[in-house]
Specification:
With about 280 residues, the chain is an alpha+beta fold. The protein is about 20% helix and about 35% strand. The protein is built from 5 helices and 12 strands. Strand 8 and strand 9 form a beta hairpin. Mean pLDDT is about 75; it is low at about 1-30 and about 30-65.
Length: about 280
């Protein structure tokens, strides 16, 4: 992992050159199978609950969260790509992203590490290292993606992305599993235990709409644990990947795996390809 850390420091862009647009503040939602738009969180809190929340908010303003602790108690996070002038070059450039919370607070800066050869020849199927830096400029997460074939009928090169917590702790793997009737992406623990599943219809796997929502189900597919959407943001004139958690108190390690799933879906369906 020492090599990972050294790569991350070298690939971190100069903040002074970044132009990060401000997103629209959106309420967290959860997509259900029996309805198109979803419910908001919980019922109206009581007066006593509001007083406790206010006290916690005042306390948290004096505490600086770092690493994946930034994911504690947030209902959603949003991935915004940062575009640069040299993105128009033939081989493109290494992608940069900002990850923000529902209230527009930036918590991570994501920096891709890949070679010009891979970007030119493999396109969005390329292998890469994604380094997520927190507000203290420390690497919080590292995501490693291997080259994966887009033809999901070929099981020898399935999609795979590892999520690592620094220093050198594997949190889990997001990987594709062979399926004939649809596309199945599974989130596994570091020990290979299936935790969550995302199923994508065969038609949408071949021709993905520009705006889409992915339902994150438990391993037995009986309960929905989150939603990932790709939506157009009018404020910044760009698409964003939005990750909504069914439980705000979810373990930040699990939220980190959902974040890895969001990045894999972004590259798999929306990077460098035309959507329907």
């Amino acid at each position: 992992m020492n090599n990972l850390q050294s790569n991350s420091l070298g690939s971190l862009p100069n903040r002074g050159n970044l132009r990060i647009a401000q997103p629209t503040v959106v309420e967290p939602v959860i997509y259900r199978s029996n309805q198109s738009i979803i419910t908001s969180y919980g019922a109206t809190p009581s007066v006593s609950t509001i007083e406790i929340a206010s006290s916690q908010s005042t306390l948290s303003s004096y505490l600086h969260k770092s690493g994946i602790s930034s994911l504690n108690d947030i209902p959603s996070c949003h991935i915004h790509q940062v575009f640069e002038i040299n993105d128009t070059l033939p081989s493109g450039s290494e992608n940069r992203f900002t990850i923000k919370t529902h209230d527009n607070e930036s918590i991570f800066l994501a920096s891709e590490g890949s070679t010009p050869r891979d970007r030119l020849l493999c396109g969005s199927s390329r292998s890469f290292m994604m380094h997520l830096m927190d507000k203290q400029y420390q690497e919080a997460l590292t995501m490693k993606r291997d080259f994966g074939c887009r033809l999901f009928c070929l099981p020898m090169r399935m999609q795979s992305l590892e999520v690592w917590l620094n220093p050198g702790i594997l949190l889990g793997v997001v990987q594709e599993k062979f399926s004939i009737k649809d596309r199945l992406i599974v989130i596994e623990s570091e020990r290979g235990q299936e935790l969550y599943k995302v199923r994508i219809s065969l038609g949408h796997s071949i021709c993905m709409p520009k705006e889409y929502h992915f339902r994150i189900m438990t391993a037995d597919e009986q309960q929905q644990s989150g939603t990932i959407t790709r939506q157009w943001n009018t404020d910044i004139s760009s698409y964003t990947i939005n990750i909504y958690f069914a439980d705000t108190g979810m373990d930040p390690k699990i939220k980190s795996l959902f974040l890895g799933l969001g990045f894999l879906l972004e590259y798999l369906y929306f990077q460098g390809r035309s959507c329907c």
